Amino acid sequence: MRRMLTYFFAALTLCWATLAQAAIAPALLQPLAGDDPDARVEAVARIAATGSPDARKLLQALLDEELMATPAGQLLIVHDGQAVDAATGQAVALPDGADGVVVNNRLRGAAEAALSGLALLAPAREQRLAAAQALQARDVDPAQAPLLRQALARETDADIQGILRQLVATADLQSGDPVRRKAAVMALADSGTPALRPQLQAILARNPDDTYIETDAALRTAAATTLAAIERRATRNDIVANLFYGVSLGSVLLLAALGLAITFGLMGIINMAHGELLMIGAYTTYVVQSLFRQYLPGALDWYLAAALPAGFVVAFAVGVLLERSVIRWLYGRPLETLLATWGISLVLMQAVRTVFGAQNVEVANPAWMSGGVTVLGSLVLPWNRIAIIVFAVLVVGAVWLVLNRTRLGLFVRAVMQNRRMADCVGVPTGRIDMLTFGLGSGIAGLGGVALSQLGNVGPDLGQSYIVDSFMVVVLGGVGQLAGTVIGALGLGEINKFLEPLAGAVMAKICILVVIIIFIQRRPQGLFALKGRSVE
Asked: Whole-angstrom Cα distance, residue 385 to residue 172?
């Protein structure tokens, strides 16, 4: 038994020594010590394809300019004055005449790409996924195909496997083997990646004499089929993207117009300062975020939970102040109301400039609203816009409940339908006017909180939405909550589908012309008031 153990440990020691001496084959290292740039780049890809930790160390040493070559062609990794043979991994004395391997931009790029490819073999799934996505975002070198195939053979995660298959096919697309190129073209048919169009179009390119550059007819046919599939998928993604962003824009318009639907639709007040109430909600969000950063940095991701009620309360208070001080004296005088509220809007903008400055301020998204969800392979839906869509639905539901299921809503509807009769039965009409205008202003403040999550906040924020808000209310029908919802979503969808065709400015002009023509034919909007409300 003792003799058998002795033989076993001797064989194990021999195997270990053999592995230590064969860290990287010298034939793979030899081109790095030469002057041929193509051979050096190819050598980097071949070294990376081994997938060994020694390959990672060698490539990192190449990037760190710690790789040296002796006159005899031996490669050494030199760190802190200590030299290690790159082929065997053994420490050696640094010989005279050793010179550093020159790393140009091309070789550096190849080494960086090779290191990214080696991360595909990492044990952690997140690291492998990040490496695959990084390679997907850059041009794939055909020399990386062996390493990509090795990673694909070892991969068990379905998401990473899909990316690796696309990367392998993209690398093979530049191969000199027609059979492999055809297989790659057919494999890319389901990728839907628009970045592949130039390569596929190159296969279908013609010479000046109208002959095809690519002589393989089967390859051309496969390229045409794949290109058509990519175009179909791109068209589908564009349609879905326009639908989503149309709903998103409609939700923003709805939040901006919902308060106006109350102050203008129910009360008949032309409030030109409504956009500034949106601005107040956005700046309230900025103040709350600043307070959280200073006093509650650990809970910064939840500042929106405090900003929402704060934005509503501040805008509600400003609206009540405006109604009690100015607007209450102007009921039934629309022209004076328009001029007065326009002047108020200028005062509010200048007040904000005085307090916060004329420059825009940044309101950062919480971590849970950053990024997005990927659908249909390449379409990314941002979380902040998804959150605003959900928020708009909740706000509309809350407003409907207030107007239709509460005592305040009953009084509001009674006063707006027949003020004198409501006053006769004891409804405090003056107080209801104040609360109604405050409610509309508070909803505008909530809209400002939502708008702050889509971009920077500035004194002119409200001016971008006041005209659109009036268009939504007039199109939907004055005093109709359902009409406001449908009008906002309809305008959002139409705008997003027109923008790619006519441009942003022309799209808005077309929408305005359509609304003018529609109002000429149907002045009451999409939904007309019925009963006593008509009076």
From this structure: 38
